Amino acid sequence: MSEPEPSPSAVSAVAEVQGLYGAFSFPERLLQKIWQRGDFDGTATRTADGRALKVLHPGRWNHLGGPDFAGARLVIDGHEITGEVELHLHAKDWAAHGHASDPAYDNVILHVVLFPCVESATRGAGGRAIPILCLLPVLHHGLEEYAADEAMEQLAGRPLHHAQEILGALGNDELDTLLRGHAGRRWLGKVHFARERIKRLGWEGACHHAALEILGYRFNRAPMLSAATAFPLADWAGGRADPAQVFDTFAERWSLQGVRPLNHPRLRLRQYAAWCKARPDWPERLRNYVQLHELAASDRTMTTVPAGDWRRVVRLKERRARLQDDLCAGVLSGSRLDNLAGDGFLPLLAAETGLNLEVAWSGWFAGDAPEAVVRVLRALGVFGGRDRPVSQGPVQGLLGWMLAYESHLQAQRAPLHGRGT
Q1: Which of 2, 8, 194, 204 could form a disulfide with 351 if both were Cys (CB 3.0 to 4.6 A apart)?
Q2: 134 and 159 part of one domain
């Protein structure tokens, strides 16, 4: 489902934030998407003046003039209220946009801001106090990770003919070097985000949150993360997290349209429950898993043999089969297991232990790689035959190149529209 066009004010409201590879942009529209999805810890939300806040419904996203969300239902300090919600990157933007004197904002019941502020409340018409909620401390991810995921989401479904045309002009060695470079940066980013998650949640919590998020796939990552927060790993391991109850707890949050039966959250929750019951100590098993530790020593061979030969040398299929049983009790398999390895297990393990697992990640099976990306890599001769199997590294390398290419195009277009947009 495509997103409606944002309002002009949402387009122009952008924060520049320092990240792993330099400054990046965080637009107000992304903050609105986070609010709509509930992609934050709803159990820890409190107003700026210290009152407990629960979001029953975020409201309907308004892409026209006026407050950003209408018909929101909230519980503040035990009292349920219904009204409109306005979002800004900074609390001062309320006054800067003149909302206090605009009657369209008279029914705003909550002012959501990204960055912390000194104000305990926002002042509406006649000095009315409007509660403030700062989202930054309760976000599931860092701002850079949200921005990176949003950029990747924007590429989904976009034609890739330009990639094949531009990269097809490169020689084999030049293309290989380019893809390896972009894949390496993607790997460093994943390890960085995994390390930040471990700092915030601890090893067990980071593993638990990452697993449920990946099982949520594209459309249900946010409610899966909320489920991970509301029902910690001990509840799943002890059989206290009933999958049906978990699903019902977030009934209004699941996105089911266009979700294939194998990715339905009901099924994924049942699978995770079975996994945790059979392997209640799976995060600790992962931290000490010899099969993955051994792959860290395979780096020197990857640069001297084709990817297919490397897989055979390290017996990757056998290792994956053992991983499926030893860590996941055989509950998960196929592309979902490969997604867990590529996006979860390997980055988390590298962040926690310092092991160099980039080559293992690069040569791992590609999981749910976008079909269009795989087609382009086949056409370029990167994939094909026994020696050039579909693998994680080139897929991530092409995605990284596409992000850099789109960023370059936007930088070229910026002078035409003004640097402030």
Answers
A1: 194
A2: no
Token output for 274: 């079975």
What dihedral angle (degrees, nearest 10) is formed by the CA atoms of 261, 264, 270, 275?
A: 90
Which of the listed residues 116, 138, 160 is the one where a domain comes to its end? 138
C-alpha separations of 219 from 213, 225, 392 in Å: 10, 12, 22
Residues 113, 26, 392: CA angle, nearest 5 degrees: 130
Q: Is 2 inside a domain boundary?
A: no
Q: Are residues 311 and 225 in the same domain?
A: yes
**329 and 274 in one domain?**
yes
Q: What is the largest CA-CA distance in the chain?
A: 74
Residue 361 to residues 80, 87, 358, 393, Cα–Cα distance (Å) = 48, 39, 5, 7
Q: Residues 95, 68: contact at Cβ < 8 Å?
A: no
Residue 275, domain extent = 143-403
CA dihedral 328→334→339→344, nearest 10 degrees, is 20
pTM: 0.87
How far apart (Å, rounded) are the C-alpha atoms in residues 198 and 351?
8
Is 159 part of any domain? yes
Regarding whether 171 and 283 lie in a shared domain, the answer is: yes
Q: How far is the CA of 275 from the CAs of 161, 321, 340, in angstroms? A: 41, 15, 13
Q: Which of 408, 405, 410 is nearest to 421 (CA)?
A: 410
Question: Tell me: the pLDDT tens digits for 273-332?
Answer: 999 999 999 999 999 999 899 988 766 555 566 778 889 989 999 999 999 999 999 999
In a domain, residue 3? The reply is no
Helix 221-230 / helix 265-278 crossing angle, nearest 10 deg: 40
Alpha-carbon span 49 to 45, nearest angstrom: 12
Structural domain tally of the chain?
2
Residue 220 and residue 355 in one domain: yes
